[in-house]
Amino acid sequence: MLSKKSAGIKSSAVRELLKFSKIPGVISLAGGIPATDLIDVEGIDTILRDILSREHRNLFQYSVTEGEEHLREQLSRWNKGHNLDVDAESIIITNGSQQAIDLLARVFLEKGDKVLVERPTYLAALQLFGYSDATVDELQYDAEGIDLNQLEQAMAAGGVKIVYLTPNFANPTGGTISYEQRVTIAKLAQRYRAVIIEDDPYGHLRFSGSPVPSIYSIAQSLFGKDHTVCYMSSFSKIFSPGLRLGWLAVPEQFHMATVVAKQALDLHTSTLNQSIAAHYLESGRINERVEMLKATYKDRRDYLIESLHEYLGDDITWNTPDGGMFLWCHLAENIDASQLLQECIKENVVFVPGEVFFARNPQKNSLRLSYSMLNNDNAREAGIRIARALSRLK
Ligand code: PMP
């Protein structure tokens, strides 16, 4: 009885693997999730006590679709120092950035449209576009960045409605798109009237190199209000994924349609959760927390790299990201990372085989290792276990 689309879309391998990571003794390099031990429970408790000690009846009432004004104001102020310079009215609060992508897919996509994505790209975006009537094509993406010739040719050929990009410390590659490439992408989108979805949940977690302006802000400075870049980010990696809070800035011309899509989808995002996040931003505590997360993730990245060097040596290659949570790795051509995962499960260590991040023709020897949950000891142990599992496949 299922629709064809529904029957054709598989459950996310990442979410399936989350089950393993909850088993005691299993070392998980699978989840793209923030470290549970770094969630600021003291900060959250203080804010909750404060909120509940004041008049809070309205926090349990319906709210407006765009999002609570307090939170939008705080986000506008806080983001000005980061990637996004917009006023509160331009921000739409969403149920995580996942919903922001969904809203834009609903607003823009129809039969015959094309969506371009990086190859490889974020698995749940592929899932989500699979529910639309559009087709998904991949853009070659390597250490040099996106293949801009391919991008231009695809746009010139017509039909490209959305280009979905994760420009900072991408999931799964950890890659960052350079400033020069961002300028070209913004110009191409403007010329061919394609929408850029700039998905930036990891941008606040840069621990080396210099920040690169967002495509949104580049387009804003080049073209003023009439550009086509939609920017989104999230509290999930810097505060709490369980609150399900993200924010979306779209150019004015798309604002009303996006709000209406959200009305139809869920009316609005949790009022109480929005209030918690607004107070957290206002308290300034978020800045210390982000600094701490960056320092910790940098250490964890380095622990994992040391462990791979020591125990896997030439059997594996990887990128070295400037932020975020992921090492994108390759094994020898003839080794299938899904088979390695089966062996690794026996060794109580899990990761995500890279093949799930490709729309087609997957690189079977690729894998994504997340270091967000590791410390020095379990990073070493992870390397030892993966090496033991790999030795059985060689
Ligand atoms: N985009 C990317 C690239 C992600 O990695 C994730 C989370 N894994 C999301 C969006 C969704 O995040 P959120 O929790 O904000 O919905």
Structure notes:
The chain has 2 domains: 4-40 and 287-391, Aspartate Aminotransferase, domain 1 (Alpha-Beta Complex), CATH 3.90.1150; 56-284, Aspartate Aminotransferase, domain 2 (3-Layer(aba) Sandwich), CATH 3.40.640.10. The protein is 44% helix and 15% strand. It contains 14 helices and 14 strands. The strands form 3 sheets. The chain has an 8-stranded mixed beta sheet, sandwiched between helices. The chain has a 4-stranded antiparallel beta sheet with strand order 10-11-14-13. The protein is globular. The site of 4'-deoxy-4'-aminopyridoxal-5'-phosphate has 13 residues, from helix 5.
Q: What's the pLDDT, averaged over the residues?
A: 95
Strand tally: 14
User: Could you tell me which ligands this complex binds, including any ions or cofactors?
Assistant: 4'-deoxy-4'-aminopyridoxal-5'-phosphate
The CATH architecture of the largest domain is 3-Layer(aba) Sandwich
Q: Poorly predicted ranges (pLDDT <50, ≥5 residues)?
A: none
- Look at the structure and name the CATH superfamily of the largest domain: Type I PLP-dependent aspartate aminotransferase-like (Major domain)
Question: What's the oligomerization state?
Answer: single chain
Distance between the termini: 44 Å
Tally of helical runs? 14
The level-1 CATH class of the largest domain: Alpha Beta
> In sequence order, what are the helices and strands, one letter per element?
HHEHHEHEHEEHEHEHEEHHHEEHEEEH
- Widest beta sheet: strand line-up: 2-9-8-7-6-3-4-5
